[in-house]
Amino acid sequence: MVVSEFGGPEQLRLDEVADPVAGPGQVRVAVHAAGVNPVDAGNRADGDWAGLRVPCILGYDIAGVIDSVGPGVTSLAPGDRVMAMTHFPDGAGGYAEFTVTDAALVAPIGPATSFTDAAATPVAAGTASLVLARLGLPAGSRLLVLGASGGVGLFLLQLAAAAGIVTIGVGRPVRHAQMSDLGAVACIDYTREDVASRALTLAGGGPVDAIADLVGGKLAQAALAALRPGGQIAAIATPELDLDPLLDANISFHGVLITDDGARTRMLAGLLERRALRSVVSRVLPLSDAAEAHRMVEGGQADGKIVLDVANG
Ligand SMILES: NC(=O)c1ccc[n+]([C@@H]2O[C@H](COP(=O)([O-])OP(=O)(O)OC[C@H]3O[C@@H](n4cnc5c(N)ncnc54)[C@H](OP(=O)(O)O)[C@@H]3O)[C@@H](O)[C@H]2O)c1
Question: Considering only CA atoms, which of 156, 107, 135, 65 is closest in space to residue 268?
Fold first, then answer.
């Protein structure tokens, strides 16, 4: 699925290109499923930030079978079932029948893990785990999660619950049952409720220790009244924040950007296989419908993770 010119979803077009070849330290993966992330849509619109040059193939999240290994690769062999987040941000290449990536970025997946679930995981769950690592909250802490119903948010709720962190999830009410099922101790409807004042009354009450901003824009500013002095904000999308109140209340701000990290992807593969982490896949579309997948992501209609079926697509 090639982008020949940066622009709208219609720029995603099926094409035949030469099969990539695994170089030293690399593997070639026969991709069965490719995860779709908001960053893919951003790269399709303008690949400059990521260092992508047209023609290019988008997609960082892949799951499939090792097809061949390059010189020096001994840890993986043809036939291995794997998932990976490819080199970030200038790697991508996942929306294709074959992609080449560094062996160090690849995680074997167990027999209980489907390609679909695996492809939905590395970027979103990886980001969630980075956010929690940066916040370093002890068990019993209270965390307000803006965007808890999103691809990153649903993983973050699960990882936080496993660490004993009490989460208050913010999302549309139609998503609250799922958020609770995955670990949110309480939920707020941002379309009808004042997020800050409601957060102060939920999950035992009182100010929260931290805010995870997974949406960006004005939300974090509006939620700030629920954060205790000395608290923390971790944002993965750019917030419109007035810094004065942060200084006045000794609040720490963490900007978080995902990195490619094979060890983290292997950790996530282990959690998936043990059912300690669940992917929430809302839709599986054929690879040829990548443009439609991008329209859904950009229209706020992902409702979880969208995965492209490459093997049958
Ligand atoms: N920095 C990084 O490394 C990194 C990594 C991954 C993603 N991101 C960015 O993080 C953001 C989230 O990614 P994602 O994959 O989770 O996206 P997603 O699956 O599309 O989820 C978007 C979330 O935003 C929520 N939302 C939208 N408008 C809202 C509003 N006005 N108030 C409250 N919530 C609102 C949605 O809630 P409802 O559906 O309930 O309305 C949904 O939970 C994207 O901007 C993405 O580009 C950054």
Answer: 107
- Tens of pLDDT along 90-126? 999 999 999 999 999 999 999 999 999 999 999 999 9
Q: How far apart are CA 260 and CA 210, in angstroms?
A: 25
- Contacts with 162 (C-beta within 8 Å, 6 or more apart), sequence order: 183, 276
* Cα–ligand 1 centroid distance for 35 (angstroms): 15
Residue of 4, 268, 300 whose CA lies nearest to 118: 268
Pocket of ligand 1 (CB under 6 A): 37-39, 123-124, 127, 146-147, 149-153, 170-172, 175, 190, 214-216, 219, 236-237, 256-258, 297, 300, 302
- CATH T-level fold of 2-120+279-309: Quinone Oxidoreductase; Chain A, domain 1 (3.90.180)
User: Which CATH architecture describes the domain 124-255?
Assistant: 3-Layer(aba) Sandwich (3.40)
Q: pTM for this one?
A: 0.98
